[in-house]
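Weekly structure sync, notes
Attendees: PL (lead), two postdocs, one rotation student
Agenda item 3: pending single-chain targets
PL asked that the sequence for the first pending target be pasted directly into the notes so everyone works from the same version. It is reproduced below exactly as submitted, 284 residues in total.
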Amino acid sequence: MLFYLRPFWPRRLGWLALLLWTWVAGAHGPWHEQILLVTEKLAQKPRDPELLAQRAELFLAHGFVDESRQDLVALETLQPGNLTNQLRRGWLELKARKTNAAIEQLTAWVKARPENLEGHFGLAQAYLLAGQPGAAETHLSRVLALSDEPRPELFLERAQAQVAAGLALTNTLAGLDEGIARLGPLPLLQKFAADLEMKRGEVAAAVARIQTIAARSERQERWLFLQGELFRQAGRTNDACGRYLAARSAWQALPDKLRRSYVATELRQQIDARLAEFTAASDR
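Predicted structure, written out during the meeting:
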């Protein structure tokens, strides 16, 4: 299963991951000026390793893989024993989608720096891109163990890798609950956990997870509708209908301005469609 790269960095990563985060988020404008500035300095000091490293990283962050590779080759010539260049090389090959080369370089780096977040995260992304979610899961777990403040998306990405690898749903749910314990019952994690509960036939547990979100939310209509969807999926028609009716009542209680929004209007249409289905079924 092929995964796409996502900017789910922990909040405490080093120079390279933060640089790539800026690139993934859509860095433009200032990078051009920075590259030009470093290039001007390199014209005066063409063999300065610090400047070469800086421009290689800037090029990579801005998507200029070939240019970054040229600077990195020059840097590796000047600093053949610099282990950090393995990390740079690994991320460069990852950006170039050369997963085997990325895995080789980042594995060597992680062996030398087993507590390094960038290396483990890079390896996870390389293994995901290579279609090896089981190996990716190992490194995502390591990132989560090493990170003081992991982003919730990291827990989700690990859970998705575990599902893709065919690991036991019980273990995957335990991993999501670890994230919930550390970060709180965030909708991102609870919704995915609810989907997994449904896969193993635990309807009540799935609904309870959505209810946990609803209990912390000022708006109830969407979560009531989602509970109805879970009951409908399980074939529990009466329970589903009850949740849809509750969702409609919650929607009707909204201020007129909120009811007219696109999202609220779409939700009302979905609620009405579900209730119409039940009415049609009961009339048969």
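Discussion points:
- The first helix runs from residue 15 to 24.
- Confidence is low (pLDDT under 50) at residues 1-15, 17-28.
Action: rotation student to compare against the earlier draft before next sync.
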